[in-house]
Amino acid sequence: MNSLTRMWKKEWPLHLMLLPGLAFIIIFSYIPMSGIMMAFQKYVPNKGLFGSPFIGWRNFQLLMDYPDIRRVFFNTVYIAVMKIVAGLFVPITIAILLNELRREWIKRTFQTLVYLPHFLSWVLLSGILVDILSPSSGIFNQMLGWFGIKPIFFLGDNNWFPYVMVISDVWKEFGFGTIVYLAALTGINPTLYEAAEIDGAGRWKQTLHVTLPGMMPIIVLMLTLNIGNVLNAGFDQIFNLYSAPVYESADIIDTFVYRMGIQQAQFGFATAVGLLKSVVSFIFISVSYVLAYRLANYRIF
Amino acid sequence: MVIKPSFGRRAFLVSNLIFLAFISFLCLMPIIHILAISFSSGSAAAAGKVALWPVEFTTAAYDNVFGKPEYVRAFGISIQRVVVGTALSMLLTIVTAYPLSKDRNTFRLRTVYAWIFVFTILFNGGLIPTYLTIKSLGLIDSLGALVFPMAINVFNVILLLNFYRNLPRELEDASRIDGAGHFSTLWKIYVPLSLPALATTGLFTMVGHWNSWFDGMLYMNHPENYPLQTFLQTVIIKMDFRFLKSENVELMLQLSDRTSRAAQIFVAAFPILIVYPFLQRFFIKGIVMGSVKE
């Protein structure tokens, strides 16, 4: 008892400091978590969470029988995995190439330019993309026209849509992605390069045998941390760029939940779909953190 | 002694420079294209004559955009949420990260608290329950719906707490010996020393608030309360004009005209274009140092 009061006397300011932050996450993160009860209810808005009847797993059964649901899950994973792979490969390559630049101001200018798209919202970038890719007057289709290619409706064609999502996402994020890899590159001991040079290794061999191994820990780390994103195909981007004709290739879990829940007010059903996503994501993220800890000794805090 | 680089090496350096210049240009080009369209005449833009330089220069699109009370009001709401939201968020992040940066001997329950925060990264209630919570709190159509849910960003808390931890311990010990309590240690030692990390988290929070559009769409029933990005989402992307009060068709056509769309996009991007290059060195430093742990 005595030690407890002593502890409290010493530590009370620290508890006090956490109080406002805790209040916010309890209200805006934990209270909504209790709302997942709705997934097991036939939710009626005016009866509320405690008045609506429970229907067990019915919502999940409905979900399994829903005709397009396989498509939705497939699209989500397909787009997300392509984004993860491309989002790893491109920044690493660009970081290595940027690192070869000898003049600091050129390097800095290029960096500033490639960071730019990261800071713009998908609303603005979608507005720009829709304009550029327009089949009638977009500049991109005009350029294809110089090579005799007929205009392509990139955002309205199921064959193109997923790839346009991946390419435009890589375009937006690769510059920002180079930051961690550039930091890793500056951390490589320069004597390793000198030693390799004395052993007769050229620039290419040095990249292969010094640079890449030096970056390996951070590459492994980024890859494992990205496992948690397997069900995040990018709601902001797809919601702003898709339309009914491309639902077949573009509809992902998040857009599906939005349409079912907010637009069609099927709260119980939409919550069930969302819960399924949250649970699977939870498993993936937890596994990725455990792996990151084991492989790269990474700790979140 | 300077060794002259071999021919192969020089060829590589030159082609690398050209390649990277091209890549950088690809990142900038869409913005320049939009800017060029916004300053071109409506007919030139519609005919697809504009590439990277305005054709038949005119500022009509901008007169048009700034003449629309809807656009100006949405811009104002966005400024409001950035100012209020960033101030609240920074204050909370600073005080939350401090106790969590202590080790177990100084703060016994630290790990328990830290997990309460981190768990919200791993799991969330999802779209519908969050929406219904905000609704039952009576926050619909208020600034609170845009500011409170984003008030604590756990990633920013982690970035800052890792930064705090890398500060030399001796500084804190010295201030404790001088009789300073936790609050004054935080305020007088930690905050001034973590300016790069604070600039980083501050920048991300500002950009996050400026760019956020989905919350406006969910929580604002009345379009008069839309922040700029939500307004643009309805007018430019969804081309939904039902909410515009004015019934004249002319207004509708003007706002959906290609040059006007471009001008609206550029005006919304402009604050970011001027802010981020200046903060670049801070955020790089902040990210790198915040992510290094011992």
- List segments of chain B where confidence is low: pLDDT < 50 over at least 5 consecutive residues: none
The proportion of residues in beta strands of chain B is: under 5%
What is the string of SSEs of chain A from the N terminus onward?
HHHHHHHHHHHHHH
Overall geometry of chain A comes to globular
The low-confidence parts of chain A are none
Radius of gyration of chain A: 25 Å
What's the helical proportion of residues of chain B?
Answer: over 70%
List strands and helices in order, with pairings.
The complex is a heterodimer of chains A (301) and B (294).
Chain A: H1 2-34, H2 48-51, H3 58-65, H4 69-100, H5 104-115, H6 122-133, H7 139-146, H8 161-186, H9 190-198, H10 203-226, H11 235-241, H12 247-250, H13 253-263, H14 267-296
Helix pairs in contact in A: 3-14, 4-8, 4-10, 5-8, 6-11, 8-10, 9-10, 10-14, 13-14
Chain B: H1 7-38, H2 42-46, H3 60-66, H4 69-100, H5 110-122, H6 127-136, H7 143-147, H8 154-165, H9 169-177, H10 182-193, H11 195-211, H12 214-219, H13 228-237, H14 249-256, H15 258-291
Helix pairs in contact in B: 1-15, 3-15, 4-8, 4-11, 4-13, 8-15, 9-10, 11-15, 13-15
Describe the protein in words:
With 301 residues, chain A is mainly α. Chain A has a domain at 69-250: MetI-like (MetI-like fold). In chain A, 73% of the residues lie in helices and 0% in strands. Chain A is built from 14 helices and no strands. Chain A has helices at residues 2-34, 48-51, 58-65, 69-100, 104-115, 122-133, 139-146, 161-186, 190-198, 203-226, 235-241, 247-250, 253-263, 267-296. In chain A, helix 3 crosses helix 14 (267-296) and helix 5 (104-115) packs antiparallel against helix 8 (161-186). Chain A is globular, with a radius of gyration of 25 Å. The two termini of chain A are 31 Å apart. The mean pLDDT of chain A is 90. In chain B, 72% of the residues lie in helices and 0% in strands. Chain B is mainly alpha-helical and 294 residues long. Chain B has two domains: 7-58, no CATH class; 62-291, MetI-like (MetI-like fold, Orthogonal Bundle), CATH 1.10.3720. The chains are: A mainly alpha (301), B mainly alpha (294). Chains A and B meet through helix 1, helix 4, helix 5, helix 6 and helix 8 of A and helix 1, helix 4, helix 5, helix 6 and helix 8 of B.
